[in-house]
Amino acid sequence: MLGYDWPRLHAALNDLPVALLLAAVVLDLLAVITKRLWFRQVGVWTMLVGAIGGAVAVLSGLQAEEHISHGEAVHRVMETHEQLGLITLGLFGVLTLWRIVRESRMAARERALSLVLSIVGVGFLVATGVYGGKLVFEHAAGIPTKVLQAELQERAKDHHHGAADKHPAVTSDSTASAPQPEGHVDPPGAPPHSHSPGTPPHAD
User: Fold this and answer.
1) Does the residue 133 lie in any domain?
2) Beta bridge partners of 185
3) Range of the domain at 97
4) Is residue 99 in a domain?
5) 85, 61 in Cβ contact below 8 A?
């Protein structure tokens, strides 16, 4: 689908719900701090879109699991990532419905509980992302075996950038690099000195 398989599609869909759900909680915190109603109103709709995006991300992740070649170690991390993702989606899904139904009628304690659960949801959201990162950066999940083998062979060539690419240093000592004119003789006891290039031969 547009050059994307399920693992790539899942990776592409992850960022939107994470950003929106985090933004929704930040907006709720700003509403508490500033006492401005519109922060809370925007937070509700931001959370709604984030929850929908989270549902799409989870569904694509479940499909991606079936299309990734993996061993036992990857499977364990993948299962934890999946469980955290489902908990996160469930928590924010319930919060979103609760907010939509009760937003205009919430008492102070109810609103405070809603905010606390949102912050807990952020904790699960971050944990889900951490385990997703482990799948990619520690286990190379989602990278086809042939591609991974080709990359390992390329790295085995041991190509380095550094000392081998540097050119020999050029000294800036003009007395060492400037040729001495032929036929030049300094008298005994003359202090050390140098002549500019092109000085004609002479004897002192």
Assistant:
1) yes
2) 203
3) 6-141
4) yes
5) yes
